[in-house]
Amino acid sequence: MIDTGTCLFGLFGDPVAHSLGPAMHNRALAHAGIDAVYLAFRVRDLEKAMAGVRALPLAGVSITIPHKVAVMDLLDEIDPEARAIGAVNTVINRGGRLAGCNTDAWGALKALEEKISPSGRTVALIGAGGAARAIGYGLVKSGARLLILNRSPERGRALAGALGAEFHLLDEFERLRPEVVINATSVGMAPDSSAMVVDPAVLEPGTVVMDIVYNPLETAFLRAAGAAGCRVVDGLAMFVYQGARQFELWTGRKAPLEVMRRAAGQQLETMTPA
Fold it and tell me: Is 68 a catalytic residue?
């Protein structure tokens, strides 16, 4: 029963109606027997929303597009990894002091490690946006040989320089022969779900192919990669792992990973047209 003793967690972003977070986190909190709820808030005025976190108070907040960078100026402390990435997706309220973390890099690595350890591997990371920056940071830290591929040379070279990685134009993909390929763009996301970031004909059997898009769960790119004999990692895996890490930071309890995975998957099914 929700009452005055119920702890409140939230999601701040715009838009948020599509988010799997409430279904996933509420199921996890209930499973753990924690008297708490997680609600999604469409936030346009971030400064006022963060003042509300202190005033209510909210115990923790997930931060999503478009606020992951702007929120950094509104926090009391930021952990070194989030500062290095340049974005925060998790806020913890520590008695009125707001601390920022980033669980995206951790979530991406955990998802990838279900198929392969990136250490010593050549990884082609496609994209140069915020998601690519977080994933790239984690890959470099894990010891991968990172290749940044992007259509825009300006953004691609800037990210590669920041991460100490190599930059290549996306057109050069075929000759690079990476062991791991990660799509860190929105290409293939519904409603344009037939789009693919590279021609699947150039993928080699045995390559590990990961897509951060989770709607649809099996993107056209992953479907083609699987047909070519590649090992695939869907975007839901990263989403669940980063959420599990948030749960642990907020509660100090081990996350019920499989419960969260089932809840997110079931919610996604309700959002996907038959």
Answer: yes
| CB burial of residue 14 (10 Å; 0-12, 13-18, 19+) | middle
DSSP 191-247: TSTT--SS-GGGPPTT-EEEE---SSSS-HHHHHHHHTT-EEE-HHHHHHHHHHHHH
Q: Are residues 225 and 118 in the same domain?
A: yes
98: enclosing H helix or E strand: strand 97-101
Query: What's the pLDDT tens digit per position in 137-156?
Result: 999 999 999 999 999 899 99
Residue 138 lies in a domain: yes
Per the structure, the complete domain to which residue 16 belongs is given by 7-102+237-271
Q: Indicate whether 273 pLDDT > 70.
A: no
**Are residues 252 and 217 both part of a single domain?**
no
Residue 22 lies in a domain: yes
Claim: this prediction has a pTM higher than 0.90 = yes
Whether residue 255 has pLDDT greater than 80: yes
pLDDT at 229 over 60: yes
2 falls within a domain: no
The count of domains in the chain is 2
What is the tens place of the pLDDT at every residue in 8-56? Answer: 999 999 999 989 999 999 999 999 999 999 999 999 999 999 999 999 9
In the sheet that holds 180-183, the strands lie side by side as: 166-169, 145-150, 122-126, 180-183, 208-211, 231-233
Whether 120 and 224 share a structural domain:
yes
